[in-house]
Amino acid sequence: QVSLAESGGGSVEAGGSLRLSCVASGPAYSRGCMGWFRSDGGNQREGVAVIDKKGNIRYADSVKGRFTISKDNNENTLFLQMNSLKPEDTAVYYCAADPAWDCYTDSWSTWRVYLHWGQGTQVTVSP
C-alpha cells in the first residue's frame, strides 16, 4: 500500500518561494510515476509537474521556468521547488503516485487516472 505525505505549504507574498516535499512509502513498483497536482477548491485538479521512472519530466505551461520537480536518490521523497510565485498559484497542492512508469505520456495531466494521493498542503500567495 502506498502512502504519501506532503509538507512545506504556507503563505508567501508574490515573487516569493516555497519548497514542497512528499514522503512516499510502499512498493516502488506502485509509484513509477510521481507528481504534483493542485486544486483551487473545485472538483478538478490541475497537473503541475510529473517525473517518471526514467527521470523524464513534464510541466504545465503555467509553471515552466518557475517550478522544478525532483526526487531524492532513493526515490522516497518528491520535491517541488516553487519560485516567482504568483497569486494564481494559490491552491491545495497534492502529491500523486501511480504504477504507470511513463506517467501516461501526453495524458500525464489527467488526474483521475492516478491511483495514490496525499492529503494535500495549502499554498497561499498574496499580491
Query: How confident overall, as mean pLDDT?
Result: 95
What are the low-pLDDT stretches, counting only 5+ consecutive residues below 50? none
Distance linking N and C termini:
40 Å
Give a short account of the largest sheet.
Answer: 7 strands, mixed
- The total count of helices amounts to 0
Helix and strand succession?
A: EEEEEEEEEEE
How much of the sequence lies in strands comes to over 45%
Radius of gyration: 13 Å
Shape: globular
Work out the helicity level: under 10%
Structural class by SSE content: mainly beta
Number of strands: 11
Secondary structure elements and their pairing?
Blueprint: E1 3-7, E2 10-13, E3 18-25, E4 33-39, E5 46-51, E6 57-59, E7 67-71, E8 77-82, E9 91-98, E10 116-117, E11 121-126
Parallel strand pairs: 2-11
Antiparallel strand pairs: 1-3, 3-8, 4-5, 4-9, 5-6, 7-8, 9-10, 9-11
Give a brief rundown of this model.
This protein is an all-beta fold. 0% of the residues lie in helices and 47% in strands.
Plain-language structure description:
- With about 130 residues, the protein is mostly beta strands.
- About 0% of the residues lie in helices and about 45% in strands.
- It contains no helices and eleven strands.
- The protein has strands spanning about 5, 10-15, 20-25, 35-40, 45-50, 55-60, 65-70, 75-80, 90-100, 115, 120-125.
- The strands form two sheets. Strands 2, 4, 5, 6, 9, 10 and 11 form a seven-stranded mixed beta sheet that branches. The protein has a four-stranded antiparallel beta sheet with strand order 1-3-8-7, with no helix packed on it.
- The chain is globular, with a radius of gyration of 13 Å.
- The mean pLDDT is about 95.
